[in-house]
């Protein structure tokens, strides 16, 4: 089977390093707040050009912590996209806010910056741009709107490790959250995430909040405020440290596969992800629109090719968000994408014959 992301193949290539790293943690018997966490936080923050990294339990916690550090209050509105994984919006609710959706740009699949100002009210406090599929949002436009209306930004980079906008990695607005869910471009062996920030005060607050409200000064037995338990653990940090040096090569490989797909698939008239102007997409998913998705997916399965849908149900149509009061038809471009998108394998270790097999089965069976 050609997988969307072949984690078994990836593991086989780094098995010895991973086993050594895990064994070292087991020998140390130090599982939290240790040297691997610190090392990984520093390395990952540096790779993205930000000053502080706070490892946490998953990418959803990372968004919640970031919103809280930026001062979100109950009822505050935060603008985001309905074309994303549920956590982009559920984290806003978990932090006490109200997600307000704007439709996507149908070419890049990222939030349509031109739609944002129409959604700003007196209650709007921030924007969560989501670099969906690893394609950066139109950050120049979004930053200008945030500045004009004094809104905070939390970049949801869960799918966008090492993606770039302009000359900088994503996150350059100052607060960025990442997920290391196993299937992400950089994946742990369980749940993990990180918040990056350039604000030292926010960093200290988030570190304390994720650790039961313990500050540097309060020590082990005093809790300066009511936090929670949202820490990353040393095993995950050690695994991520082993994988991190490979991330550049994996990213280049994803981009190379996407380029080969684009050449054959676009030539046939299919719509695929348009890389953001001034952006560098890291293709967390390779997405193409078709009119015969179900039939095509079974055909791909028969030919030994995995496929996926990211995402079939837009957030404004999720039962969980019924109370937000949206209707079918509110975000037509998101709804059209949800009906038509299919994700093809983009595992960095794919060889040329596998790529060619995907292209030929796709082009022979997909309908415009
Ligand atoms: C995966 C993901 C998250 C949540 O990350 P978890 O680590 O699964 O909590 C948030 N936003 C987006 C866009 C994601 O893809």
Detailed description of the structure:
38% of the residues lie in helices and 12% in strands. By secondary structure, the chain is of the alpha/beta class. The strands form 4 sheets. Strands 1-10-9-6 form a 4-stranded mixed beta sheet, with helices on both faces. Strands 3-2-4-5 form a 4-stranded parallel beta sheet, sandwiched between helices. Helix 2 packs across helix 7, helix 3 (59-69) packs across helix 4 and helix 3 crosses helix 6 (200-209). The radius of gyration is 21 Å and the shape is globular. The relative contact order is 0.17. The model has no long low-confidence stretch (mean pLDDT 98). It binds pyridoxal-5'-phosphate. Pyridoxal-5'-phosphate binds at residues 58-60, 84-85, 87-88, 130, 156, 158-159, 179, 181, 191, 193. Residues 58-60, 84-85, 87-88, 130, 156, 158-159, 179, 181, 191, 193 line the site of pyridoxal-5'-phosphate.
**Helix fraction?**
25-40%
Give the ligands present.
pyridoxal-5'-phosphate
Radius of gyration: 21 Å
General shape: globular
How is the largest sheet built, in terms of strand order? Answer: 1-10-9-6
Biggest β-sheet: count, sense, barrel?
4 strands, mixed
Order of helices and strands: HHEHEHEEHEEEEEEHHHEEHHEH
Summed up, what is this model?
The protein is α/β, with parallel strands linked by helices. 38% of the residues lie in helices and 12% in strands. The protein contains eleven helices and 13 strands.
Task: Describe the protein's topology.
Elements: H1 7-28, H2 35-47, E1 52-56, H3 59-69, E2 77-80, H4 87-94, E3 98-101, E4 124-127, H5 139-149, E5 152-153, E6 155-156, E7 164-165, E8 168-169, E9 175-179, E10 193-197, H6 200-209, H7 234-243, H8 247-267, E11 279-280, E12 286-289, H9 293-302, H10 332-340, E13 341-344, H11 352-365
Parallel strand pairs: 2-3, 2-4, 4-5, 6-9
Antiparallel strand pairs: 1-10, 7-8, 7-11, 9-10, 12-13
